[in-house]
Amino acid sequence: MSGTIPTIAEAARLIAAKRLSPVELTEACLERVHALDGQLHAFVHLTEERALADARAAEAAIMANGPKGPLHGIPIGLKDIVDTKGVPTTCQSKFLQDNIPDVDAACAEKLATAGTVLIGKTTTHEFADGGPSFDLPKPPARNPWNTEHFTAGSSSGTGAGVAAGLILGGIGTDTGGSIRGPAALCGIAGIKPTYGLVSRAGVAPAAYSLDHIGPMAWNAEDCALMLQALAGHDPRDPASASRPIPNYTAGLGGGVRGLRIGVVHHFHETDHKVSEGTQRGITAAITTFRDLGAEISEVQLSPLQDWLACGSLISITERAAAYEEWARTRLGDFSERLRSRLMLGAFVTGVDYVQAVRRRRELRAELQGAMRGLDVVLTATQPAEAAKIDSVPKWDLFAAPNFTMPFNVTGYPAISVCSGFGASGLPVAIQLVGKPFAEPTLLRVADAFEKATPFRDRRPPVVAA
Amino acid sequence: MPEMKDEAFEFLLARAGLNLTDEQKAELKTVFAGIAAMAERVRKPRGYMAEPALVYDFAEEDLA
Question: Three-state DSSP class for A2?
């Protein structure tokens, strides 16, 4: 157990042994919500009555027939750009304050079918972009490790909620780092699966060809359990891959001996030099992997700035296209931050977009070549510990390249796991990247790292208080 | 870096159908250079046969 907050795997074992009731588990999460969410703002909408009813139904079913799987009776949150039947889905936007979908998004449906208990809809940046905004219907989420600090985004509420134990897992979406960024700054695990592995149907787009849906949870094992329920072909998503789904937990505990890990040193040491605390975490992680028997080598890729340029031009254009109608008619109803992002669409020409997509093919081929002979690539997730929430620059897009966009551009799976704490006590993280559809190996490596390090034993101080 | 002339700027905004305040226009002008730099960065001498990655699947060699 991690303090009094179990992981999904721990809770599942206790539930299966009938030593933990889904009702007690849900009530404990709701108690923490009531105690902490006034500070954290992890939720934009709570589904308390439904959660308790679902937990009671799960308890009755489990007592009668045993759990239908490891997620049965597990309290979760869904990012508020995920459609939920009969439950408000606002995308944290003035445009959708009255929106109550008739149908669940594919990921919501799959998690419900697996028996999860929905605690509520978690805070997001407006339509999953823009940054922490104070001119929206609900305030931005706060970092549980220090509420004066940012969570990163855009899956900010899921990150804060999991870290503080308001939920045991949740859904994030990732167009340029929106699962991995909050996972890093909130000290949890978050995996952006291979493009096409998890259906995007029923989730509001940020940029169609870069959008990914994935789990966020306390550790890699819990991400694996959630991914098992989420992965699979869906004809409603035009990018959905049709491939056999492996067992994502089977390899956990298998260690990393003999696996080959390539480190992209220039990403975090030259292209965008990370903080001392982040670098210390990366260096120690490399030592840990070497001590565990992995083979470590260096990988050279195009400068991080190339990946950001490619991804940003695509992202800006696809977002501007998705929200063009509202931008033309009701621009003032967007938050200042998203409005600014949408305005950038005016500057990207059709030819710029196609050149970016041509560059995308080259960059993908480059990563494919670099990963030949490797199992996993390692770099930073975030450049530093979380900044203060009121100091996040509006135009951070142009300030420095991020470490996550390369794997949205290529569609390769990537996970962020906690690699320690900086001088301020805030978490730092490493990012591990796998080959397409090789999530079992990626999760195995992440799990081995977490089990070899003590960082999963520590929850944010606000939880203990 | 190409300079953004006022006429071109107004044309692009009108073409995009965006109705901005003077303050928004002034701010947006300050970041045009950032977009132009990105657009320059994705241009490489690659010849006309180089295809975009508009639609792709993962080939077997990706997975090996």
Answer: strand
φ, ψ at A401 (rounded to 5°): -70, 145
Q: Which one is catalytic: A133, A154, A155, A156?
A: A154
Q: Which residue type does A328 have?
A: R
- Residues contacting A212, CB < 8 A, separation 6+: A173, A174, A175, A179, A192, A193, A195, A198, A200, A408, A411
Q: What is the CATH number of the domain that holds A236?
A: 3.90.1300.10
- Count up the domains in chain A and report the number: 1
Q: Tell me the C-alpha distance between A116 and A200, whole Å.
A: 19
CB contact under 8 A, B46 and A362: yes
* Structure confidence by residue, pLDDT tens digits, A359-405: 999 999 999 999 999 999 999 999 999 999 999 998 888 988 999 99
Q: Angle CA(A61)–CA(A67)–CA(A70) in degrees, nearest 5? A: 140
Closest CA to A124 of A167, A163, A179, A76: A179
Q: Where do the DSSP E strands lie in A81-237?
A: 117-122, 169-174, 189-192, 212-217
> Looking at chain B from residue 1 to 40, which residues have their Cβ under 8 Å from any Cβ of chain A?
12-13, 15-20, 24, 27-28, 31-32, 34-39
Q: Point out the residue among B34, B36, B52 whose CB comes nearest to the CB of A358.
A: B52
End-to-end CA distance of chain B: give it in Å, rounded.
42
- Position A2 scores a pLDDT of 43
Mark yes or no for CB contact A306/B41 under 8 Å: yes
How far is the C-alpha of A340 from the C-alpha of A336, rounded, in Å? 6
A273 as an active site residue: the answer is: no
Interface confidence (ipTM) of the complex? 0.91
CB atoms within 10 A of CB A361: 18
- C-alpha atoms less than 13 angstroms from C-alpha of A65 in its C-beta half-sphere: 7
Cα–Cα dist A415/A424, whole Å: 24
Question: Is the CA virtual torsion A143, A144, A148, A149 positive or negative?
Answer: negative
Q: Which domain holds residue A176?
A: 8-464
What is the value of pTM for the model shown?
0.96
A352 interfacial to chain B (CB closer than 8 Å): yes
Strands (E), A293-413: 295-298, 376-380
> Which positions in chain B touch A357 (Cβ < 8 Å)?
52-54
- The closest of A42, A289, A82 to A167, measured between CA atoms, is A42
Size of interface A-B (CB pairs under 8 A): 106
Position A1 in a domain: no
